[in-house]
């Protein structure tokens, strides 16, 4: 069966818990690699360059776009965000499941380039809880929170374009479910074409030998 890693896109409303889930996922399972994006937004308190994001100036970001340094990039609430190409390609080659935590335009872009990518949309159980989490995180000013909630309404329009919806109610359960989804996706026939071809070839050779 497929021992290569797959590309996993995780999107979801700001405050849904994507970052928290990713953290747990990479600590609890060792076959995941989390892509670190580049962004032009300012670091939040506690965020480190190269850990949460590569923080770039707008001009630097635009230069990287021109050089083809990103697999995809998008503008979200007035800032650029992009997935560095080199890391993703290297980790996939090494057999890791590579997780991209990106917004919906980026997700659709990845789907076009990598039709076998698994697309998961994370949501809290309801909108009240989303507001509570966004405000509770305390990292954005109220007007930015309002902007992100408006953006969430737009993103909800695209939820049905994903392969799975993942409800982040209890964190532990949610992380386990994500890992199960990835395991199941790796077993899908579309991601095991080589295995299927080999079995078919062997069976055909066997049948010929028996004639
Ligand atoms: P995102 O990366 O999607 O914007 P975060 O991971 O920053 O969201 O989570 C937003 C807030 O919600 C954080 O304060 C986090 O601790 C909290 N949170 C995440 N998951 C849960 C959960 N399952 N239950 C309660 N709070 C959660
Ligand atoms: P935040 O500012 O809260 O860290 O991220 C804002 C949004 O940008 C989130 O929806 C997050 O998933 C998305 N994002 C982060 N990195 C990337 C990226 O490399 N590409 C795209 N398209 N979106 C990203």
Contiguous runs where pLDDT drops below 50 for at least 5 residues: none
Look at the structure and give the CATH class of the largest domain: Alpha Beta
Cα end-to-end separation: 29 Å
What is the fold-level CATH name, i.e. the topology of the largest domain? Rossmann fold
CATH homologous superfamily assignment of the largest domain: P-loop containing nucleotide triphosphate hydrolases
Q: What is the 3D shape? A: globular
DSSP strand count: 9
Number of helical elements: 8
Radius of gyration: 19 Å
Q: Biggest sheet, open or closed, and with what strands and sense?
A: 5 strands, parallel
Order of helices and strands: EHEEEHEEHEHEHHEHH
Q: pLDDT average, as an integer?
A: 94
Helix/sheet category? alpha/beta
Going across the major beta sheet, what is the strand order?
2-7-1-8-9
Question: What characteristics describe this protein?
Answer:
single chain; 211 residues; alpha/beta; Rossmann fold; Guanylate Kinase phosphate binding domain; five-stranded parallel beta sheet; four-stranded mixed beta sheet; 20% strand; globular; binds adenosine-5'-diphosphate; binds guanosine-5'-monophosphate
